[in-house]
Design brief:
heterodimer; A: 218 residues; mainly alpha; Rna Polymerase Sigma Factor, Chain: A; Arc Repressor Mutant, subunit A; 10 helices; globular; B: 215 residues; alpha+beta; Jelly Rolls
Chain lengths: 218, 215
């Protein structure tokens, strides 16, 4: 049974590709580009261009720009996750060096720059704070294209902006719990202990937050 | 086959996997399921995007003086694009093969009675992961759970009090569920099971065996 999947994905990538296209199509419905200011789109586009320029030209200036913007955010994320300042500083430097080293793995049709950097930082966090390996799913049969499709990149940028706005529009109570779940390395029951809220309330607030985000992203 | 999968990961598990707050045994089971399931892969993408958006919004903490220069000094040439994506060439998905040190034929099974076999995988101790081999038509002893148990079907199928689970399906069980998984008659069933607490078996023999078998 499993061998069949293997064969299918190697032959044409069609079932996976279909799922990906379907997913993208679903994501494209709803509020269009007019909701996104040009300035924001340009900024996000810039980060993508910087990473691609590192990949293609070993561009140190582009790296410095990414560093200025993202390193302090990654450090903030790691400190919220429980790292002290020295460890957060060290890990952030590692994350940024990984960004440079692994720039060939970045696929702007699948992740924004911030999302990709988040996944690198998260993995470093698991390694440094939890001393664990992080099992990753298999790669999709296609890797990042040399020339990513601009329409796909743009669509993803716009979704990213929408998501950022949607998070900011969440009721404060819901937003706080989503942040705790991502940044504080806490399970729902640990959040319950920390906040004194009943477990059921936490679960339902997170569910409401996700429903709201889904509604906006539809 | 990805279309045949009927039992998927919950939002809570995907979010925790994305956030990186789960024990290694759960991460392994989830990574293996996602390798088999496009729907959960796409949903994971959405949760990673949420993480990215939160990082973008988070309060910055200033980097130390000379930090950029220190990193710049470390940079070597970026790695070249690899020829082939990481993809299993065998029966079991790649993340699982990493823990076994090979494919299904490399698993070192230990009998736990009634034809049922298991192999414990090396993960951190806050939860355990093991492969289960259930002969066609046989049952795993009736058990309940103290914590959460994830059971992912790799080969064959089983049915329990909840539903029928085929290849790629994942069952998420918690304290409330007492179940007796029974393998389908046509084929031996191989599952990956992860739990963050010891299982509670109802019969006497399995309970005595439990501490020795580490299940």
């Amino acid at each position: 049974m499993l061998q069949e999947v293997e064969k299918e994905t190697f032959d044409t990538a069609s079932p996976l590709m279909a799922a990906r296209v379907r997913y993208r199509l679903n994501q494209r419905q709803g509020p269009g580009p007019e909701d996104v200011t040009n300035k924001e789109t340009t900024e996000n586009d810039d980060w993508v261009a910087c990473i691609l320029s590192i990949r293609e030209h070993q561009d140190r200036q582009a790296f410095a720009r990414l560093f200025d913007h993202f390193a302090p955010r990654v450090k903030g994320f790691l400190m919220k996750s429980g790292a002290d300042e020295a460890l957060a500083e060290e890990c952030t430097q590692d994350v940024m060096a990984t960004l440079w080293q692994k720039s060939h793995l970045f696929d702007p049709t699948r992740a924004s720059a911030a999302t990709w950097i988040f996944t690198i930082a998260r993995n470093r966090k698991i390694d440094a704070l939890r001393k664990q390996r992080r099992p990753e799913p298999e790669d999709l049969p296609w890797g990042p294209d040399q020339e990513p499709d601009q329409a796909d990149v743009l669509a993803l940028q716009q979704e990213t902006m929408q998501l950022g706005k949607a998070i900011n529009d969440l009721p404060e109570k819901q937003k706080v719990l989503i942040e705790k779940a991502y940044f504080h390395d806490l399970s729902h029951s640990e959040i319950a202990k920390e906040t004194g809220l009943p477990l059921g309330t936490i679960k339902s607030r997170i569910r409401l937050a996700l429903d709201r985000l889904r509604h906006v992203m539809k | 086959m990805t279309d045949q999968i009927k039992h998927h990961l919950t939002d809570a598990l995907l979010m925790a996997y994305s956030a990186g707050s789960l024990p290694e045994a759960f991460n392994l089971t989830i990574a293996t399921h996602i390798s088999m399931c496009d729907e959960c892969r796409a949903r994971l993408g959405a949760f990673d995007s949420l993480g990215g958006a939160l990082v973008e919004e988070t309060e910055s903490v200033e980097m130390s003086a000379g930090s950029l220069e220190a990193v710049m000094d470390r940079l070597k040439a970026p790695e070249e694009k690899k020829e082939k994506p990481r993809k299993s060439k065998g029966v079991l998905p790649a993340p699982l093969q990493d823990y076994i040190g090979g494919d299904l034929d490399a698993v070192r099974w230990k009998s736990i009675g009634m034809g049922v076999k298991q192999a414990i995988l090396p993960t951190s101790r806050d939860a355990s992961a093991r492969l289960l081999f259930i002969p066609a038509g046989a049952a795993v002893p009736d058990h309940g759970h103290q914590g959460t148990e994830l059971t992912l079907v790799l080969k064959g199928a089983f049915a329990d009090e909840v539903d029928h689970f085929g290849p790629g399906d994942i069952e998420v069980a918690n304290e409330d569920l007492n179940h007796t998984p029974v393998a389908d008659i046509g084929e031996d069933c191989i599952c990956l099971a992860a739990t963050d607490a010891p299982l509670k078996f109802k019969g006497l023999i399995p309970r005595i065996a439990q501490p020795f078998l580490r299940i």
